[in-house]
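Module 6 notes. Inverse folding takes a fixed backbone as the condition and produces residue identities as the prediction. Think of it as a translation problem where the source language is geometry and the target language is the twenty amino acids. Below is one complete input and output pair. Work through it position by position during the lab.
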């Protein structure tokens, strides 16, 4: 066989290997990328916490205070959620979203008058660890004042204070909302609360 025939065969062999190596390299790169994307997506999914699902009911009386009933769903850990009070559209003639107030959870007790225990003690530690189905939370009437629950609805002009808060008798029959949210702002639930005498 001539030298020319051997060179020609050798060239054909090399040209046949090259596409196979290229395809294998592309396959390996694709598998690596898929593994990285899968690991990243799995990490994102596991790092996001599920928003608790709860069924709450609340009532507010200007003469008796506020009670919040946990009627079912997930248990909420005290300190892991926030409570906001927002006047509804039927509360006076205001832009309700402008008057949102976060309720200080140090005002809340477990709701049983004979043995009421505050959610937080005077040093800020938790006395009640959780808000579970069947539990009742309460804010007593002395803590349901405008300064605590709706301070942005108290106006002072020329030395005269005007109370537009939820404890003003002219708003009996109106409603407000209690929004329970996670610490990062995801809404857990919203409860509409009627104002009664």
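Target side of the pair, the amino acids:
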């Amino acid at each position: 066989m001539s030298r020319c025939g051997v060179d020609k065969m050798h060239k054909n062999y090399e040209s046949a290997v090259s596409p196979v190596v290229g395809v294998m390299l592309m396959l390996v790169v694709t598998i690596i990328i898929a593994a990285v994307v899968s690991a990243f997506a799995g990490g994102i999914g596991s790092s996001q916490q599920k928003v608790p699902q709860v069924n709450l009911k609340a009532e507010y009386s200007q003469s008796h205070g506020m009670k919040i009933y946990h009627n079912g769903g997930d248990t909420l850990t005290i300190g892991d959620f926030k409570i906001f009070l927002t006047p509804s559209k039927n509360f006076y003639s205001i832009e309700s979203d402008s008057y949102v107030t976060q309720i200080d959870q140090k005002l809340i007790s477990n709701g049983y008058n004979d043995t009421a225990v505050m959610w937080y003690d005077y040093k800020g530690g938790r006395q009640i660890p959780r808000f579970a189905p069947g539990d009742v939370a309460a804010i007593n009437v002395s803590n349901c004042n405008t300064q605590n629950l709706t301070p942005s609805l108290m106006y002072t002009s020329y030395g005269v204070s005007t109370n537009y808060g939820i404890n003003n008798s002219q708003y009996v029959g109106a409603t407000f909302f209690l929004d329970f949210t996670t610490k990062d702002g995801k809404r857990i639930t919203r409860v509409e609360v009627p104002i009664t005498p």
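Reference fact for the lab report: The chain has a mean pLDDT of 83.
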